[in-house]
Amino acid sequence: MTHMRLFATRALALTLAVFCMASHAEDPIVIGQSAPFTGPSAQLAAEFNLGARTYFQMVNESGGVHGRRIELKALDDGYDPSVTVKNTNELLDKEHALALFGYVGTSTTLAALPVVTANQVPFIAPVTGAEALRRPFNRMVFNIRASYLDEAQYIVDQLTVSSLKSIAVFYQNDAYGKAGLEAFTAAQRKRGDVQLLGSATIERHSTDVAAQAKALLAMHAQAVMLISSYSSSAALIKEMKKDGYAGQFVSVSYVGGKALADELGSQGTGVMISEVTPFPWGESGQLQRDYTKALHKASVPSASFGSMEGFLAAKVLVEGLQRAGRDVTRAKLVAALESMTSWDAGGIRISFSPDNHNGSHFVEMTMIGSGGRFVH
Question: Which of 279, 155, 298 is nearest to 227 (CA)?
Fold first, then answer.
């Protein structure tokens, strides 16, 4: 009888263990995002989130990652760093997020960084090119997009090819704008044959650009570099064009190309934007083809650089999760991502290593064409 009880107890324990393992395998993998779904960068945040959700949905419909669904928990921070910190704590403490993903903005990501470091949680694909997210090296931060320095150097090279060598800068007075200005200044010094005539700054959330437009017009620059939100950038372009400026406007990618084009309407033609993802309307790479197919299946009406970035970032994260195995932990995910050396994401290569988490330096130039369509 004693042997029978012992056998039954062991059988029950084994059954419970198997049940717990199965339940664990079916638990969703929770990924947390804090982004400005309201405010001056709302469209950029919404586009990134849409692209990421589209990819995760495709993965979930195919059985998930090792049988587990991915759940993206997204909170609005309104581009307010203090709210970002609050959201980050909630995503970790209440939602038990395995990783944080797709934070949008320099000021907000920097505010979250101490929480990330204290909790040793992977912080994947922040939507900012700021050097502060790259140096000093933080093992929890995985950058997928190119840096602002990469973008600034590319922009300066492209402008000089067109013999546009006198440049003024319009930048947002926060960590994002200052990071972009610093990157451009470094690129300008490196070239040596480009003249920075001066700059004008605007406060975050403001579109009152009359004084800045007047100051920039007085500089007679051949090109104006924009390092601000799409709303203030569009307001400046309209104001300067109204006053007769016929030079070149060029923006870094963070502006959100589609958002800027939508805001400018017919006045957007000819505005140049550096981009850090493959062309969303292209068909030459596997990533572009998968993206187009996934958007069509999900009934997403239009492509954008922002949703392409979210789609690519989600693909990189899922590859890391696949490599980390069924019982993924934060530490396993970090190690798995670090094993992705020159990984082909479908036409763009992502490289991480134990001492370098800057996944890509890809930059190319686009231009708003007639009807708000992009050319490259």
Answer: 155
